[in-house]
Design a protein that fits this description.
Blueprint: E1 6-15, E2 18-27, H1 33-115, H2 119-123, H3 126-134, E3 162-164, E4 181-182, H4 184-187, H5 202-221, H6 226-243, H7 252-266, H8 275-287, H9 293-302, E5 305-307, H10 317-334, H11 342-346, E6 352-353, E7 363-366, E8 373-376, E9 379-382, E10 389-396, E11 399-407, E12 412-419, E13 430-435, E14 471-479, E15 482-487, E16 490-496, H12 501-506, E17 515-523, E18 526-535
Antiparallel strand pairs: 1-2, 3-4, 3-5, 6-18, 7-10, 8-9, 9-18, 10-17, 11-14, 11-18, 12-13, 12-17, 14-15, 15-16
């Protein structure tokens, strides 16, 4: 009888809270206990091997999927970055195109204001203000005495309307000057409009005239205070309330409301920030009248005024047209270059960016102590710790150079034009001064050293430099011997270099007709951006 071996498997059975165990013999025919054990271990190891192989395959599949996923993400991210870069480039190109179109449109407006203005250009004051900027160049003042254009009787300071050029405080305690209307002739009503000429408004008219006469009397005495202005405000309020009762027919109410509104606007000159100016202006206009174009502009420069619209002066459109012709004649007598002539330079070629916003490509650092220049966040920066300078790779003769600069308190720098290529070009180049004019160290600096001046030669008109820490815009136009410098929209220098013979003996570079463009590192941190030049071929 064949012996049967038993392979014993033990199973644990759990019943309730107690534990019982039993053994059951499993018999495989023709087997021995040892053989069965070995076969069992073999099967176990085989199963483990298949498990490991399957696990390895699964891990390989997972790793492959992960690799593909990472590659897919990197591909998508790369595509996104490329698309984003293209979109940004297109947007910048579009912005640049729009900016160029705006600049050309503004330049065309400037040309029209100076050559063939429309009646609206003149009556709005835009054409007169364009000529005002051209006639404000300090280098032309020396020739005024021999070429003054007289004003006719009708064009007086009180017949015209002005507005303050806004000015922010530059010193602690200084009030902000806002852009309010200055129309002394409107306030001093000699003839009331038809809508307000009726008997029903006689008391209100008389109260206003008496109140304004009292204000003028106090101004001339130098004793204006808020108590004197109170009755004027009360009279204006009474007029404003009464005109609302005027009939609407025939435009009576509309005319009355508009006139009283213009009086209220003109009376803003007696606000706290401009009352001192009002007192001085009323004194000036009572003591003398402007007899020439030069005296009119001197009055405007003194109080930082520009022309307001003719409607603010009681519809003085004819006077504005006459004054435009006289200011144009004054420009021609002085031989002042028209700013619109720079269009001819621009037409000679497209503007070129001298600074790419990324690195110093296109520039060379020159000077005894180099390495002071770097680029930070798209801005050219110098700390002014050395006497090096950046020199362009190309030379330029006639050109229009535009850039923005920002200075730290007390900073001193400059822009070289038509400059030779040497370590220290100061005495052999034309330098446009960049200076923190408000710094205590420079408050008494001569006009030839102010920001925007042709250093040690042509003085710059004051009052156009922004406080330290703010971006300034400068535009330099060089055509032959003529150099004009515009700072933050104002013409601060309009010079003919042939007139500076004495200065040329000390600095022969003033007479140079061509050379490199340079940015100076001298004192304090100065930053530059948007450096662009349009050169005549």
């Amino acid at each position: 009888m064949r012996r049967l071996a038993a392979f014993v498997l033990t199973a644990g059975v759990f019943l309730g809270d107690g534990r019982a165990s039993a053994q059951q013999d499993v018999v495989f025919p023709g087997s021995t206990v040892e053989g069965d054990r070995l076969r069992g271990e073999g099967q176990f190891l085989k199963g483990m091997a298949w498990y490991n192989i399957s696990a390895a395959r699964a891990r390989a599949i997972d790793e492959e999927n992960e690799r593909k996923w990472i590659a897919f993400n990197e591909s998508m991210l790369g595509a996104y970055r490329t698309a984003r870069a293209e979109a940004i480039a297109k947007d910048r190109e579009l912005q640049s195109l729009r900016k160029e179109q705006r600049e050309r449109a503004l330049a065309e407006d400037e040309r029209r204001y100076r050559t063939s203005p429309t009646p609206d250009d003149i009556e709005s004051g835009k054409a007169l203000n364009a000529l005002l900027l051209d006639l404000s160049g300090p280098s032309s003042l020396s020739s005024w005495n021999s070429s003054e254009v007289p004003l006719p009787e009708g064009i007086t300071l009180t017949a015209l309307a002005f507005q303050f050029i806004p000015r922010r405080p530059t010193k602690p305690g200084m009030s902000q000057v806002k852009s309010c209307l200055v129309s002394l002739g409107r306030l001093d009503v000699k003839k009331w409009p038809f809508a307000l000429s009726g008997a029903a408004l006689a008391d209100e008219r008389r109260a206003y005239e008496q109140a304004y006469a009292k204000v003028v009397e106090r101004c001339l005495a130098g004793s204006l205070d808020h108590e004197a202005i109170g009755p004027l405000d009360d009279a204006l309020a009474a007029l404003g309330a009464k005109v609302k009762d005027l009939p609407t027919g025939r435009g009576l109410r509309a005319e009355g409301v508009a006139f009283v509104k213009s009086l209220v606007e003109a009376s803003a000159i007696f606000d706290a920030s401009t009352a001192d100016f009002a007192v001085e202006m009323i004194k000036d206009t009572h003591e003398h009248r402007a007899q020439t174009v030069g005296q009119l502009l001197a009055f405007m420069r003194k109080y930082r005024l520009m022309f307001a619209g003719a409607e603010q002066a009681g519809g003085a459109g004819d006077l504005y047209g006459q004054l435009y012709g006289l200011m144009r004649e004054q420009k021609e007598r002085l031989g002042i270059m028209d700013a619109y002539q720079t269009l001819e330079i621009a037409a000679a070629g497209r503007p070129t960016d001298l600074f790419n916003g990324r690195d110093l490509a296109g520039w060379d650092q020159l000077g005894p102590d180099r390495g002071n220049w770097r680029v930070e966040r798209g801005v050219l920066v110098t700390e002014g710790r050395s006497r090096d300078w950046l020199c362009s790779r190309e030379t330029y003769g006639d050109f229009e150079l535009q850039l923005e600069f920002r200075m730290s308190p007390g900073a001193n720098s400059g822009i070289y034009i038509r400059c030779p290529r040497r370590d220290v070009p100061s005495n052999d180049a034309i330098e446009i001064q960049l200076l923190d004019d408000a710094a205590p160290a420079y408050r008494d600096a001569p006009a030839q050293s102010r920001c925007g001046a042709i250093y040690a030669a042509a003085p710059a008109a004051p009052g156009f430099t922004k406080p330290a820490g703010e971006w300034n815009q400068i535009r330099i136009v060089a055509v032959g011997s003529k150099v004009a410098v515009h700072l933050n929209g104002g013409l601060v220098v309009d010079a003919d270099l042939r007139e500076f013979r004495e200065q040329a003996r000390r600095n022969p570079g003033i007479q140079r007709a061509e050379g490199f463009i340079g940015l100076q590192s001298w004192q304090g941190r100065v930053e530059f951006r948007n450096v662009r030049i349009t050169a005549k071929s």
